[in-house]
């Protein structure tokens, strides 16, 4: 009997996982969207932060076509493999480093922080989340509940809302030749974040409020459209 193709195994597993997220996380996703819409309506900022590969998801929401202009990405090169993968892994576990990162950003009451960590076990993301909450921001954690529970993560006590990507502990989905391959947290995380933003945009539209979304710079009229939002957030969003 022929073994199933790995492409089909991974595709089937990812599609099933996304369907599970949609079915089981819908109330939490709508709550997150409402919080984001409320923050946008009050001209507050949505901070995003993650270390290691989770940094890609924090960047996913920042200054991109169709993305939310209110997003302020929290960038720390030392925790994103730019200093090297091994050094970055050590740094994201370094106690006290997250507090230093948080000090660089003027998080205030009414803002929202989306803290992204699949295991929610590393010191840096926990410290950033703690700092944001101490300053009065709402904290949304995007994680794998199974993985975070296995690691006995304090994030469940820190976060005001948890979004579960429903990925397995260890992230990978497909077993081949005794190894498990095919990580899923990035796929699921991008789906969750963009779905939440679409829902938040719909809420803003229903309220008759402008939707602060960027357009692709190569589309007609995009430069003028985007310049409006850049001018509005310049000086507040640190990395514009």
Automatic annotation (TrEMBL):
Keywords: Isomerase. The keyword Isomerase applies. InterPro entries: RpiR-like_SIS (IPR035472), SIS_dom (IPR001347), SIS_dom_sf (IPR046348), SIS_GmhA/DiaA_subfam (IPR050099). The keyword Disulfide bond does not apply. GO terms for molecular function: 6-phospho-3-hexuloisomerase activity. It holds the Pfam family SIS_2. Residues 36-206 form the SIS domain. Its EC number is 5.3.1.27. It is an enzyme of class 5 (isomerase). NCBIfam families: PRK02947.1. This is 3-hexulose-6-phosphate isomerase. It comes from Meiothermus hypogaeus.
């Amino acid at each position: 009997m022929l073994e199933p193709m790995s492409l089909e195994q991974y595709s089937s597993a990812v599609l099933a996982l996304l369907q599970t997220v949609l079915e089981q996380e819908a109330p939490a996703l709508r709550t997150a969207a409402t919080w984001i819409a409320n923050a946008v309506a009050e001209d507050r900022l949505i901070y995003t932060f993650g270390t290691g590969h989770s940094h890609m998801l924090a960047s996913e929401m920042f200054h991109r076509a169709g993305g939310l202009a209110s997003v302020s990405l929290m960038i720390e090169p030392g925790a994103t493999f730019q200093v090297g993968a091994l050094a970055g892994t050590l740094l994201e576990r370094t106690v006290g480093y997250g507090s230093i990162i948080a000090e660089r950003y003027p998080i205030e009451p009414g803002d929202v922080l989306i803290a992204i960590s699949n295991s929610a076990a590393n010191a840096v993301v926990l410290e950033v989340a703690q700092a944001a909450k101490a300053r009065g921001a709402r904290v949304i954690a995007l994680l794998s509940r199974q993985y975070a529970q296995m690691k006995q993560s304090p994030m469940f006590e820190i976060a005001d809302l948890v979004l579960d990507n429903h990925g397995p502990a260890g992230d990978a989905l497909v077993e081949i030749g005794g190894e498990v391959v095919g990580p899923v947290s990035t796929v699921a995380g991008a789906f969750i974040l963009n779905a939440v933003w679409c829902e938040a945009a719909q809420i803003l539209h229903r309220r008759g409020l402008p939707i602060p979304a960027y357009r692709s710079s190569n589309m007609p009229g995009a430069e003028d459209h985007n310049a409006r939002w850049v001018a509005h957030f310049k000086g507040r969003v640190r990395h514009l």
